[in-house]
Amino acid sequence: MPEFTSRRGLLFGAAAVSTGAFLTACTSNEPSDKSEDKPSEAPVADDKPGKQVTIGFAGPQADHGWLNAINDNARSRAKKYSDVTLDITEGSNDAAAQIGQIDSLINKKVDVLVILPADGKAMTQAGLKAMRAGIPVINLDRIFSSPQAYRCWIGGDNYGMGLNAGHYIGEKLKDKKDAKVVELAGLDNLELTQQRTKGFDDALKNYPNIKKVARQAAEFTVESGQAKMAGLLQAQKNFDALWNHDDDQGVGALQAIQQAGRDDFLMVGGAGAASAFEHIEKDDGVLKATVLYPPTMAASAIDLARALGQAKGIGGMAEFEIPSSVTLYSAVVDKTNVAQYKPTGFK
């Protein structure tokens, strides 16, 4: 059987094979051997060298601290395994250019593709093309518009990020009458920004004493964070808490806060930058916590791709296959647990 046919069969025919095997087992009247009654143990990917796997990695341009950490996590994780070869592209924020890079990886016949698309909807066809070529895709973070374009999706929980930020602030202010909060969001044309805001707003519904009095969208950069925060501070002379969606733009926001001489509120950040962890650990300013959107998801994507390439499951689960989706938890990091999370901070 040609390689293309067999690999494509593994991707699209697994359900039919499993169903057939299940029906055979259920309808057979033949007595089974006692040894066959014992449940089979799934082969699990571990640190021991196994089948060689070439993983193609295509992500957007690392023009942001979090995206740079994505690439670093993928590279460092791949180096951990002697049976993994990582073929990583230069990265581009232009969908057409990234599609070309993915085409190149498909033509190289890599075993598995890990793709963090610059635009999930615009690049869905690239994922479909790889899957149809018999190359399974791990879709990282920004999701394709069709589940047929990937074998497994892994990413952060944007709604949960806002939800946890809102609950953290809510618990801190639950006993304060007529508490006021403001929000420094990210790019409003991104769905992830809207999800973070919705989670935050939903959490605040549990605290009738708290009102969100202002919201300003920035652009995930230090410069935009500083400019937009300065505007918020000028417009809002009195508030009790700030939630900032992104720790990179939070660097600028903190500069604006310092320049304004304000220290009369608490601030919660987002993503998990090393600089935010340092402020939280020192506990000498307004930044008291940050809600994670962990770039370690790229390392986990390499683990999933390796397991997929070796036809194995993952540790701690009984299934023979990796799951179809993995949503990471948005943990809140404050001074009580910052030491645990510091090694994951990105610069």
TrEMBL record:
Q: SUPFAM superfamilies, from UniProt?
A: Periplasmic binding protein-like I
Of the GO CC terms on this record, one is: cell envelope
* Composition bias type Basic and acidic residues, residue spans: 31-50
Which InterPro entries is this protein grouped with?
A: Peripla_BP_I (IPR028082), SBP_2_dom (IPR025997)
Q: Where is the Periplasmic binding protein domain?
A: 55-310
**Keywords carried by this UniProt record:** Signal
Subcellular location per the Swiss-Prot or TrEMBL entry: Cell envelope
Source domain of life is Bacteria
Disordered: annotated segments: 27-50
Does this UniProt record's set of keywords contain Signal?
yes
Single Gene Ontology MF annotation: carbohydrate binding
Which protein family is it in? Belongs to the bacterial solute-binding protein 2 family.
Q: Which PANTHER family match?
A: D-ALLOSE-BINDING PERIPLASMIC PROTEIN-RELATED (PTHR46847)
Identification of the protein by name: Ribose transport system substrate-binding protein
What organism does this protein naturally occur in? Streptomyces indicus
